[in-house]
Design goal:
With about 130 residues, the protein is α+β, with helices and mostly antiparallel strands. The chain contains four helices and six strands, in the order αββββαββαα. The chain has one domain: Aspartate Aminotransferase, domain 1, CATH 3.90.1150.
């Protein structure tokens, strides 16, 4: 995995918890039990995704289309809603700053869907 900073970065965001879903072999990053990022390495049988480590991130559908057109390592989400999630191949050449921004945006999209009192609690942690 080229982005050795990714785990530490995701965990540094306020209110984030990490777990491991054994059945899926996914490391999941959540805010109050709401998924915003997942790191996995699909098997070869998953064609486009197989043999790559990747991170699934929530994404605005319009931005997802633009990202997929611009960066070959940005694909529709793996085993998620392909309209609102993207998969970033972690062995690609996506610039670090772009991946950090995508992680922040995924976090923000999920955070804004949480109840207002939860958002305030998490923002107090900042």
């Amino acid at each position: 995995m080229r982005y050795d900073w990714l785990d530490e970065y995701l965990l540094s965001l306020p209110g984030v918890e990490k777990d491991y879903k054994m059945e899926w072999q996914w490391f999941r990053y959540k805010i109050r039990d709401k998924l915003f990022a997942a790191v996995c390495s699909p098997e070869e049988k998953y064609h486009l995704y197989g043999g790559h480590s990747l991170v699934n991130l929530k994404c605005d559908p319009r931005e997802a289309e633009l990202l997929q057109a611009r960066y070959p390592e940005v694909l529709p989400g793996f085993y998620t809603d392909k309209r609102t999630w993207i998969a970033v191949l972690l062995d690609g050449e996506l610039p670090d700053d772009v991946l950090r921004r995508l992680c922040q945006e995924s976090y923000r999209l999920v955070l804004k869907k949480l109840p207002k009192y939860v958002q305030r609690e998490i923002q107090e942690e900042m």
